[in-house]
Amino acid sequence: MMLRRGFILFLPRLVGLLVVACCSMSIVYMLACTPKGDNQQLALPRVHSPTVKEGYEAILQEREEQHRNYIISLKKQIAQLKAELQGRTEQLKNMQNQYPDSLDIRLDHSKPEKAQANLLAFLRSQVDKAEVHSGVKLSTEYAAVPFESFTLQKVYQLETGLTRHPEEKPVRKDKRDELIEVIELAVGSLNKPDGVSKAKPHVYTAADFVEGIYRTEKNKGTLYELTFKGDAKHQFKKIVLFRPFGPVMKVKNENVNMADTLVNVIVPLAKRVSKFRQFMQNFREAGIQQDGRIHLTVVYFGKEQMNEVKSILENTSRSANFKNFTFIQLNEEFSRGKGLDVGARFWKGNNVVLFFCDVDIYFTAEFLNSCRLNTQPGKKVFYPVLFSQYNPSIIYGDHDSIPSLEQQLIIKKETGFWRDFGFGMTCQYRSDFINIGGFDLDIKGWGGEDVHLYRKYLHSNLMVIRTPVRGLFHLWHEKQCLDELTPEQYKMCMQSKAMNEASHGQLGMLVFKQEIETHLHRQKLSSKKT
Which regions span the lipid bilayer (predicted)? Predict the structure, then answer.
């Protein structure tokens, strides 16, 4: 009973306290929510004022507007954060994926920003893979990728290319443009203000370039290290540039049907019956029996030994049931260019692939397919680099130990060399040969006509395919350079003769043969004494 009476007495006090607290909170709320003017607070409306209702409504409406704007701002920030987070996630995935195979890269052109990010990430990974910041372990001394050095005037190269010069002014336009671009880029980079030094900067030019080295890793890119003169004696500026190679991209995917593509082999000839017999044996095996889509045109100069040559042709025709051959006889002095030109123009059928060939050439059926695949009318001509055989008597020594011809045709540095200075064996469609103007018929005798035709193609819009091939061989034969040749032709002939005999090492053994035999004789005497 006492507890109940105490609670009843305390209840009015509690209600009074709650009313005071509510009033206090209302006053604080109105003070906090009252909008401010430029320099002072707006006065609260008086309780007994006739505008009290309108004042509170205005205050609440303004406060509501402020909250609405704040919510809109938050939503925008959240959207921006989501977009940035998504971009960072994609970038992280790209960086984590080091693209072990460049074919795995998919450049989605419907999303250019993503495609660009993927490509940039790949190019950066190329720098990490290449020997730019540190070396890599190599298995042998031959695995190192050598640098080539260059100045403003010259390039000093290990891979001499078709010019065969260890140093040269860059002949190929792509190499010349590449090095000019790199030097200009380096100069521009050196002249960029660093934003730190307040001293007057040194303005670099190409004249300050001292030397550079560069090397290309075929699947990664090209590294350039360039040295420039510094601000004082014995001081230099060094800049390292890297041109990363992009991912492999599919350009074309097509079916190529060569079932009905005929190759017309044109051979100019004068005498040389034994060589022609050997040639026809190879032609029968590779051309008639294995390939079957082939025609032979022989252009013979003079009448001496002509009947023997025609007899070989007729015997092959009967035994192999082969009718696709043409024999043309010219009563004039031998001219390789004239013979090939006459043979090409004599053809009256549909457009055909012409293979200009010599009687001392050995080819395989695989090469005939390469001939077809690397030619295209109006677009491509084929200039294979054949493998030239050294003198078998020097290579194998004793005559009795010389193996058969097929066993000799092995591509090794001891047995021959790539004949990269020769342009006589070539495949092209007849239409391209006619449109380019054919051979220069003023050139007589040996050499020169092939280079002239090659240059015509280079100066045209046709693509020239120049590559070593494994199925085309030049058989060794003793070469005679005639006195009636022009000085330039005679020089070319003698150079070709020297190249044909043997390798440097083999020729060196012949030069020092006496010295070697003397040494061996002394060794033998010394061993007997002991």
Answer: 7-32
